[in-house]
Specification:
It is a single chain. By secondary structure, the protein is an alpha+beta fold. Helix content is about 65%, strand content about 10%. It is built from 16 helices and five strands. A five-stranded mixed beta sheet has the order 1-2-3-5-4, with helices on one face. The model is unreliable at about 400-405 (pLDDT under 50).
Amino acid sequence: MNTSLTFRYAIELAMVIPAAVIAILPVYYSRKVKKAFLFGLMGILLAATVIGGAVVCSVFGITSNTFIFPAMLGLFVTYNFCFDLSFPKKLFCFSNAVFLCGFSSTYNTFLTAPLELNNKYPVYTITSGLLDLGIAVIVGGVFARTLLVKFSELFENESLDSAWKILSLAPTIAAAGIIWMKPVSAENVMTGRLRMICLVVLLSIPLISLFLYQILWWLSKKMTERAELQRNLDMMQMIEKQYQQTRRYLNETRNARHDFRQHIHVIEEYLQAGEYYKLKEYIEPISESVKHSHKLICKNQAVDALANHYDEVAKSREVTIYWNIKTEEMLPVKESDLCAVIGNLVENAIQASTALTGDNRLVNVRIGILQEETLVISVDNPYRGTLTLDKKGLPISSLPDHGIGLRSVRNIVERYKGSMEIETHNQIFKVSILMYAPD
């Protein structure tokens, strides 16, 4: 075995190291294995790929791509196992890493063509191989913030969940295209002014990619802001509705106080006359008016408005909600986030209860605050049929858009470093949540 040649192959195959970093950065905070396990496993696999691949390529005289492409399948299987995101999102990140490192290798071929003219082996010289690694590191550095911060924000936007299957195709196709563009030999590159033109033109590829990623992130932010504004608008409409109901209740109360003596006088006359049937007819509209008076569920105005809204929705569907909300006017989390969580959970619970009959058409909602910093939420309801939870603890359903609300709740809870647990025992679906005040 040629030791020098093996070393050259090892340098060329070391491209998988920056590629692994580029692939891991966007999904780092979504890992489902411990940090030590992740880095240990990736270290073993990358070392085996670089050293083992160098030996295999050197012995059989094949190109590094002939070895690395099949190896990429095993690396992706491991990558898919270690991170807790949907398959299209992981494919997007992995393909993007292949694309950026494929660009580095293709660009390096044009850059180092004069050094490779006399190279008789299908592998870079040591100098060219080191330059190849250097270009990959520079490209990774340019994309680092976008990969670590902005990609993570993109993945949290549930509005894009249905689009990732299509979005994941872009870097996959781009990776295949950039690898196909790589020249077969240095002689082809040195034809006329082809090399100089390509060195300039190819630089636009990562810049355009970075620009497109920035545009996608910007659009995602706008979609999030629009959804936030819509939630706030809905909340303001609910508060306005509750305000009008409160005003109506106060007016009715004022009128009731004004008419109270008259009511007492009429009631006494009916009692003295023994006209109990007429007394019943007289009291019924007064009793009905009391039933429809304002119902104060919570001290916080926004949460109270939301609870009253869903209380009316439940009544219209003949579902009973038992509210037990013990919160102050000030909350440890943003009102809009808490209302989004409550709204999604209660709406799902009402929908599930609507499919039941009799006493099973009920929902229990409990909300409280522990030590002024921890918000505790519990929502449970009976359900019919069989429920299966996926590896993330969310219900599995073939219905379109089913589960989006719970994914949104989970994303909000994670922003507050909280926890969400779903239980399905004895035909009771229960969601328990802890949310902590931001530091």
